[in-house]
Design goal:
The complex is a heterodimer of chains A (about 230) and B (about 160). Helices cover about 40% and strands about 15% of the residues of chain A. With about 230 residues, chain A is an alpha/beta fold. In chain A, strand 5, helix 5 and strand 6 form a beta-alpha-beta unit. Chain A is elongated, with a radius of gyration of 32 Å. Chain B is α/β, with parallel strands linked by helices.
Chain lengths: ~230, ~160
């Protein structure tokens, strides 16, 4: 009898897997029916596990493609910027970031924030960069979109003797402190900022600490600044 | 029944005024509660129940006017150094300063390249006790405070100084 029962269960589960639940529901013996249902659940679970085993491989191939996709995305943004603001790109060569010129940066920032394709509503970081004592300075903006979950880096080179760049404080409010910090450390003036003062150093501090040619001042309000206690080393 | 109870007539205690003052001052040096960096965490731990600074008479005060001891706990930047000086000037005499940790003692890890860290708080205020460590353990801070108490006890504020 048990072999008959097994055969019946196997057959009905086979049918149920193909979508015919009646094959199980029509079994008259209650015990056999519940056994068949249990077998169906088990079969379903095994099928699911088999699918899950396959997915990591699928994700992996996706991850391999991702860097390529990001590069393409940066290039897309660059193309859109060039189309909207001709001559705003410093170099056409897009390598994960976009190298721009400073003149139209404020308008470009508004465009990047409001364009439905990009929607960069979050300015994640503003930082300065000094290429060397006779080279340019650079400002870097890291943008992220909360809606599309994509990110881009914008780099803008500026002359170290005339370090001015449009402020994007009005575009992203967080830019207020970011720009003040960049000003504090690199002396880059953000034109249009509502309160372009030092944020970390004292207001009357001399020099820009993170520039390569920075030299610490000797005295500050009558206090010696560099190390003075000889013989300690 | 205590040992001393009911054994004396009306009485006087004879002590040197200097020593009495020193005793009173040294056993209740209230400290000014402000922290500048990670040393402040150790200072808080010292003031909390496990190490319990109050058992040696030290109570944190939130105002420099009420404090006798300033524990400079942490890195003093050039910007802060002016404030530290101002706070010290607001304390009432007699006042004492403890430089806690290597930053307050000498600039610590910012000794050579920290462009706006004060190279030791003794450049702006007179320091009574230096406590090494980065940061010093609560035991080290307590040791420093006991050293300060010894120093206060040994003072003779009323005695005429002979040059």
């Amino acid at each position: 009898m048990s072999s008959d029962q097994d055969k019946l269960i196997a057959e009905s589960v086979e049918k149920a897997l193909q979508g015919d639940m009646d094959a199980i529901n029509n079994i008259e013996d209650r015990v056999t029916r519940s056994k068949a249902k249990a077998a169906l659940v088990k079969a379903n679970r095994e099928a699911k596990a088999a699918v899950a085993e396959e997915t990591p491989r699928a994700e992996k191939s996706k991850a391999e493609e991702a860097p390529q996709a990001e590069q393409t995305f940066a290039a897309q943004v660059a193309v859109a910027l060039e189309k909207k603001f001709p001559g705003s790109l410093d170099t056409e060569d897009v390598n994960g970031h976009i190298q721009m010129k400073g003149e139209q940066w404020y308008e470009a920032a508004q465009y990047l924030r409001d364009n439905p394709d990009f929607l960069f509503d979050s300015l994640q970081c503003v930082t300065g960069y000094d290429y060397g004592t006779s080279e340019d300075l650079e400002v870097r903006y890291n943008l992220h979109s909360m809606t599309h979950h994509h990110a881009i880096e914008i780099r803008i080179k500026i002359d170290r003797n005339d370090s001015k760049i449009p402020s994007v404080e009005q575009v992203w409010r967080i830019g207020d402190w970011f720009e003040r910090e960049t000003y504090d450390m690199y002396g880059i003036e953000f034109v249009g900022h509502s309160n372009m003062t030092r944020i970390l150093c004292p207001e009357d501090w001399a020099g820009w600490p993170l520039r390569k040619d920075y030299e610490t001042q000797e005295m500050y309000h009558g206090i010696v600044v560099p190390k003075v206690k000889d013989g300690w080393e | 029944m205590g040992v001393l109870e009911n054994r004396f007539q009306d009485n006087v205690v004879v002590a040197s005024m200097d020593k009495l003052l020193g005793w009173a001052r040294s056993t209740s040096p209230w400290f000014f509660q402000f922290g500048l960096a990670c040393c402040a965490i150790e200072m808080m731990a010292t003031a909390a129940s496990r190490y319990d600074l109050m058992r040696i008479g030290m109570i944190p005060r939130s105002s420099p006017r009420q404090a006798d001891v300033m524990i400079v706990a942490g890195t003093v930047t050039m910007k802060m150094s002016l404030r530290v000086k101002k706070l010290y000037e607001q304390m009432a005499d007699p006042k004492y300063v403890i430089a806690m940790g290597s930053c307050a003692t000498s600039g610590g890890p910012y000794w050579q390249y920290g462009y706006h860290v004060l190279k030791g708080v003794d450049l702006v205020v007179p320091v009574d006790v230096y406590i090494p460590g980065c940061p010093p353990r609560p035991e080290a801070l307590i040791e420093g405070l006991l050293k300060l108490q010894e120093k206060i006890q040994a003072e003779r504020p009323l005695t005429k100084k002979i040059a």
